[in-house]
Structure formats: C-alpha cells, structure tokens
Amino acid sequence: MLSKAGCPKTMLSIKDALDALEGRWKLLILFTLAEAPKRFGQIAKEVSGITDKTLSKELKSLEANKLVRRTVHDTFPPTVEYSITSHGLSLEKVLDELHFWGLAHRKEVIGK
After folding, report:
1. How far is Cα 56 from Cα 80, in angstroms, rounded to an integer?
2. Three-state secondary structure call for residue 82
3. Does position 3 have pLDDT exceeding 70, yes or no?
4. How far apart are CA 27 and CA 38, in angstroms?
5. Which option is the CATH number for 23-109: 3.90.1640.10, 3.20.20.150, 1.10.10.60, 1.10.10.10?
6. What is the pLDDT of residue 8?
7. % of the chain exceeding 70 in pLDDT
8. Spatial distance between the Cα atoms of 24 and 96, rounded to a whole number of angstroms
C-alpha cells in the first residue's frame, strides 16, 4: 500500500529501480528478450519506433545494470546476440502488473 509519508529507504529503492529502467524503451526491450535471445536487428523490428542509436544506448544501459547479456559468437562476421539475464527475468511480475494497469488505464482514459 502506498504511504503518504515516504520512507527514505523506500524512496531510494524506487529511485534505483527507475534509474535502471528509465525511458520508454527499456521495459519493451526486456519484454522482447524474455521470449528468446535475439540479434540487434530482430530487437529493432520488434520494438516498433525505436532508432538504432537509441536501441544501442538502451542495450548498453541494460547490460550495465545486469538486466541483459551481450554475447559475441565466434563467426565471420562476428554475430552478436542479446539475452535477458536472471536478474532481468526477475522483472516478470512488474511487467505483468504494468500490463494489467495499462489495460485498466486505457479503459479509464480512452474508454477502450
């Protein structure tokens, strides 16, 4: 339950989570990777509207936060694949709740 008087530790943990997941793309990238490991181009196709520059930046940030793993395969040319880590998979309940909240929000605001 949300409290009006915020606990400093709670505020800090929420800030940390928002810092790791900030922006409009990171959760969508994680949702895409939860299905299976993918190459850069596959992610770009599935996350509609994201630019290559932004996708690259977001993947680096997700990797730095240990939510995504980047694997370079020994092929010619080198093949790079991205997969979600177990730490990233721990966001499954958050994504589910966000999905349900989004449905309710759409119904409330748009009426559909």
Report:
1. 12
2. strand
3. no
4. 15
5. 1.10.10.10
6. 79
7. 94
8. 16
DSSP code for 67: S
**Amino acid found at 53:** K
Region 7-34 average pLDDT:
92
Kindly state the tokens that stand for 33: 């990777």
Q: Residue 80: phi, psi to the nearest 5?
A: -110, 130
Average pLDDT over residues 14-35: 94
Cis peptide before 77 (omega within 30 of 0): yes
pLDDT tens string 25-66: 999 999 999 999 999 999 999 999 999 999 999 999 999 999
Straight-line distance from the first to the last Cα atom of the chain, in angstroms, rounded to the nearest whole number: 28
Separation CA 108–CA 13 (nearest Å) = 29
Distance from C-alpha of 112 to C-alpha of 89, rounded to nearest angstrom: 30
